[in-house]
């Protein structure tokens, strides 16, 4: 069977949004609200085990019980309402970072999106992020030329169960009217890998500083990045047929995943 679509995760895969966008935005929101705590890289790596930003905030409140100062009363009245307030402020800062060009695409992303689109493959974004969060990324992170090549966006607010559940991928497959083996997922985390593989979709991993130590044994290929002609990708597990991830390798992976007739 032929490869017909690439399904991209967003945060950490298309761009290193966690390190350059989300975590700085949380910390800026905390500072704006007069809160004394900040989320450093090690703590944030642990918080990323929660599938959404609101869940990270709620988990942090309950697990770490930070000093809240003047916000203690609001939290005691409604944790959820306070979390929503903080998350809205954080999202405003995140959109500002995107507009200012502070969240660049990872190496090889623009190249692969163009190559796949021009070869007739369909492109989708399958992410735990809400569609409201995806929209500014498409506009400012990808830009018009690349964004118009995306034929489907599936956000975490559309489905009851986010990754690591397979529901987002199954929904995307249904919308695209494709079998799992006609697609390849491109992810950066064990959570995303688990979701894609549970939906039957073969998966390529591009690690980042937050996910480097995770278990990717179920992936078809693990890379340090998608790579560019002058910046080759480093293979961490599996086999790649060219210096940067391209259609030759992806089609081979799809063929190997197709059912034997």
From TrEMBL:
Keyword Hydrolase: yes
Pfam annotation, one family: Hydrolase
GO molecular function annotation: hydrolase activity
Keywords recorded for this protein, A-Z: Hydrolase
InterPro entries (alphabetical): CbbY-like (IPR044999), HAD-like_sf (IPR036412), HAD-SF_hydro_IA (IPR006439), HAD_sf (IPR023214), PGP-like_dom2 (IPR023198)
Keyword Cell inner membrane on entry: no
PANTHER family membership: CBBY-LIKE PROTEIN, XYLULOSE-1,5-BISPHOSPHATE (XUBP) PHOSPHATASE
NCBIfam families, sorted: HAD-SF-IA-v3 (TIGR01509)
The protein's name in its UniProt record: HAD family hydrolase
Species classification: Bacteria, Pseudomonadati, Pseudomonadota, Gammaproteobacteria, Nevskiales
């Amino acid at each position: 069977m032929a490869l017909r679509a690439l399904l991209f995760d967003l945060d950490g895969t298309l761009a290193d949004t966690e390190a350059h966008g989300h975590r700085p935005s949380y910390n800026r929101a905390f500072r704006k609200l007069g809160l004394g705590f900040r989320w450093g890289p090690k703590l944030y790596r642990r918080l990323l085990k929660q599938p959404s930003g609101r869940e990270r905030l709620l988990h942090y409140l309950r697990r770490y019980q930070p000093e809240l100062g003047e916000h203690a009363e609001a939290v005691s009245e409604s944790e959820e309402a306070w979390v929503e307030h903080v998350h809205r402020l954080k999202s405003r800062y995140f959109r500002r970072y995107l507009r200012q060009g502070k969240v660049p695409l990872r190496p090889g992303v623009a190249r692969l999106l163009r190559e796949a689109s021009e070869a007739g493959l369909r492109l989708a974004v399958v992410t735990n992020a809400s569609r409201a969060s995806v929209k500014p990324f498409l506009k400012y992170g990808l830009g018009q030329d690349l964004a118009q090549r995306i034929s489907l966006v599936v956000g975490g607010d559309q489905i009851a169960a986010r990754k690591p559940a397979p529901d987002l991928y199954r929904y995307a497959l249904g919308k695209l009217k494709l079998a799992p083996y006609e697609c390849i997922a491109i992810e950066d985390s064990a959570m995303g890998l688990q979701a894609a593989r549970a939906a039957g979709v073969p998966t390529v991993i591009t690690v980042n500083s937050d996910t480097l130590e995770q278990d990717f044994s179920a992936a078809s290929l693990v890379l340090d990045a998608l790579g560019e002609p002058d910046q080759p990708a480093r293979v961490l597990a599996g086999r790649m047929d060219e210096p940067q991830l391209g259609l030759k390798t992806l089609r081979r992976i799809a063929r190997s995943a197709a059912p034997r007739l």
